[in-house]
Every structure is written in structure tokens, then in C-alpha cells.
Amino acid sequence: MARSGSEHVHVAIVGAGFSGVGAAIRLRQAGIHDFVVFERGDEVGGVWRDNRYPGCACDVESPLYSYSFAPNPEWSRMFSPQGEILDYVRRCASEFGVLPHVRFGHAISEAAWNPATKRWQLDGPRGQFTADVLVAGMGALSEPWVPGFRGIERFEGPAFHSARWDPDAALDGQRVAVVGTGASAIQIVPRIQQRVGQLRLFQRTAPWVLPRRDRAFKPVERQLFANLPITQKLLRVGLYLRHESLVLGFRNPSIMRVVQRQALRYLHHQIEDPQLRERLRPDFTLGCKRVLLSDDYYPALAQDNVELVSAGIRELVSNGIVDTEGRLHELDAIIWATGFHVANPPFAKHVRGRSGESLAEVWRGSPTAHLGSMVAGFPNLFLLTGPNTGLGHSSMLLMIEAQLELLLGVLRELDGREAVTVEPDPAVQARYVDQIDRGGKGTVWTAGGCASWYLDQTGRNSTLWPWSTHAYMRRAKFERGDYVVDGV
Ligand code: NAP
């Protein structure tokens, strides 16, 4: 029974990024129309709506970083910029009829399974809802994280996270710090270096950087993509196979030494100053952290107005950052390119299962889920891009689409057999997690000698799928015997 005053839907999807919009499209295609997408923002796009920093683009080629069912002949470049990716998600949401299902400005702040009604109860500032099935599409990289440096509140200039870019902040000719050298920072640095007066780049760990070799698609290629769609499909297959083959290197760190030699040659070629080169030389196995692709990062660092700071950050003061060597870096603005809450996603505190415990309480800092999607004790909850579905080597869209097929399998079970609840058998889930843990042993992610966001506070890889995407696609099928199905 619905709570009085609350609206009931069959499926509630939270988040309208690539995964939430994809879920909505696949539901409609499967003939399921009783669903709502709750989106806290005022448009679709998820991370591609939120990340608007200069230089923001995808580091996976666009023909592969798109839905398989919606090829886009309009991509301007091999690695298209954020604006085009956002337009693509918007267009897909519109053309596939998703938009009428989306409630914009509707954050869901609490979700609790009600064992009496066998429904999810959803609460948010805009009201209460109930749902038979809850699909969490909030994304793994949606909650910005800024380290709690001493005195952070003292700094008087603009200071903002890369994913909360302030377009009004005056950076031209100013003394600006970028903190962090991950995938976001290496896109930002080359773009602001020409505008700012002085750039201080705070590097804690030197990343591995390989050339991106981006290029614009020629008009003739775009015409071919539009008029002969098989050509874009073939390109996608080629890119897919190239990315899939990379997994061999990630699983066998010795292979990565060959790629490291290529990366070091690239560093030597780009940076003349031997001292700077030495400070930019990574000290872990390539692939242990996300491999960064850039054609303009090293050239930007070689410019006179850029200083690489390898000392740590001791504290912030009103006019800058004091490093661990006691040097004051006077600054007008600070950009935190310091990443996201990943292994400890804030939403986990707010999703409560049958026992009343939250996901965060059950996970205790190390998220696990059967097939990265469903959790014992949390009936009818489906996590998109959940634990161990991330990738270090290919397009997340491949994993999202495989998960969506699994979701449809779960919904077919519920709708076709008049079942009320589905959740993984705890023993099956435990066996699966054990396989994942064993599969990750010896890979570059766990044995590569780095501290990355792929590893959680217990040191476990709870983020990445440790095999090929093909292996996940084969695995992510609904097998009835692996689940506890109630109400048949
Ligand atoms: P990130 O990879 O987590 O990088 C955060 C950076 O901040 C790291 O260099 C880290 O140093 C540094 N940092 C963190 N705490 C620090 C501290 N206390 N003092 C100094 N430095 C500190 O974050 P991100 O660059 O935003 O990227 C996150 C993920 O988003 C990527 O891995 C990728 O999956 C995705 N992304 C994708 C694209 C794309 O093109 N598709 C673009 C941007 C982001 P350490 O290395 O020492 O930890």
C-alpha cells in the first residue's frame, strides 16, 4: 500500500546521466512505461552536465563512448568535447522519448525498503514516492571531493572544484593554483595556462601520460558515417577491439613495461629540462592509476609561467597555499582537481535495506554487489555502474549497456512471473565477490605500486571490473538460480 500522499511508480530511476537515460530508453524499448527518472539537476547529462571546465572532453573515442543503439555521425572529433557529449545525451533523451518521464529538480535524499509493503519508500525535498524497483544511476564520479586542508576556509580568493567550475571567476592574468594531476587536471592545465599570469600545479604523484592523438573527423568521414552507418560501426568495432586488447597489459604488469618505455620517450621528447623531466617521471607501474592521454599537457608544463610544485600542501592562508617546505605560494584563485568520493559514495548512507541498515553500514567502506548490480538484503535495488563495474581500459558505455540487459532480465522476472521481490542469494553474491577479488590479484591495479581511487580504504579493488568487457557482457545475464525470488 502506498503511503498516504505518496505517488507510486513501478520503477524509480535516480539520476539522468548516461546510465539513467540509458535505463529509461531500454525500459521504453522493452514496453515498460510505468517509470520515473528523478534528477536533482535541471537537465540530463550527469557528469557531462556538471563538468564544464575548460578543455573538458572524453578520453575514450566518441564512436565507442556512445550508446551502441544510437550512433552519432555528428561527432566533430575522435575525442569530442564535453558540450558535444552533453548535446548527445540530451538528444538521445529527447529522441527516445525519455524526457516526459524525467522529474527535474527532484533530489531523492532517502530511500528505504519497507518490508511490510514490499516497496521502496523515497523521500526528497519535493515529496514522497514509492516504487517497486529502485534503479540507482547516480554515477561513481558525481560527488566532488576536496581534501580537508588546514585553513581551507581562510583563503579569500575564488576556490572551486573542477566539477563545479565557476565561469565568472577571473583567471586571466591571475596567479592560479591547480591541485591534483589526474584526468581532470591534465585537461584543465593546457587550457588555462595561456590565460593565467602564473600557474602553480601541485603534484603529489606524477601520472603516466601517453599521447592522445586527437583529430577532427573530415567532412567526408562524417558524410560516410551519416550515409553509410556501417562505416561508423566498423570504426567502433576497431576501437572496441583495440581497447579490449589493452586488458592483457592491465592483467600482466610486465607487458606494461613496454608501454612505459613509450611513455618515457614521449616525456623526453616533450620536456627538455632534465630536472623537470625527472619530477614528471612516475614511480609506479603504468595503468595502476588511470592512464592519462594528452597531446598538450607536457608542452604546457614547459612554459615559463608554469611551476610544478612537488612539495605537499601544509595549509591554506588568506592569500595562498603554504607547502610542506614552508614556502608561501601567493595566489588569486585555486582549482581543486582532487577527484571524487568513489569507494565511499555519499548516497550509500541514505539507502536502507530490509534490516534497516544502510548500504554504507553493510559495505563498511568496501562496496560489493552481485554482478556489480544487486545486493543481498536490498530487494529490487539495482545499482548502475555499481561496485567493480568501472573500467580502466575502455568505454563505460559498454558496461552500462550490459548492466541494462541484466536490469531488463530482473524486470522480466518480476513482471513476467508476478514475483514481488528479487535479490541475490547471499552465498552466490559472496562467491562472486571472491571471484572478483581473486581475479584482481596480480593485476596492475592491485600490484602496480600506487595508491589509486580504484582501491577502497581496506585496500580492496571495489571499483574496477578486472577482466575484459566481453567477459562482463557474457556474465551479466539474469540466472534465476542465483537469486532469491519472492512472491511467485
Ligand atoms: P583523480 O583522478 O582522483 O585525481 C585527483 C588528483 O588530486 C590526483 O592527482 C591526486 O593525487 C590529487 N590529490 C588528491 N588529494 C590530494 C592532496 N591531499 N594533496 C595533493 N593532491 C591531492 O580525479 P580526476 O582527475 O577528477 O579524475 C577522476 C576520474 O574521473 C578519472 O580517473 C576518470 O575516470 C574520470 N575523468 C574522465 C575524464 C575523461 O576524459 N573521460 C576526464 C576527467 C575525469 P594522487 O595521484 O597522489 O592521489
TrEMBL record:
Q: Which residues form a coiled coil?
A: none
Give GO MF terms, alphabetically: 4-hydroxyacetophenone monooxygenase activity; flavin adenine dinucleotide binding; N,N-dimethylaniline monooxygenase activity; NADP binding
Enzyme Commission (EC) number = 1.14.13.84
Gene designation: hapE_2
Q: Provide the alphabetized UniProt keywords.
A: FAD, Flavoprotein, Monooxygenase, Oxidoreductase
EC class, as a word, reads oxidoreductase
The name under which this protein is listed is 4-hydroxyacetophenone monooxygenase
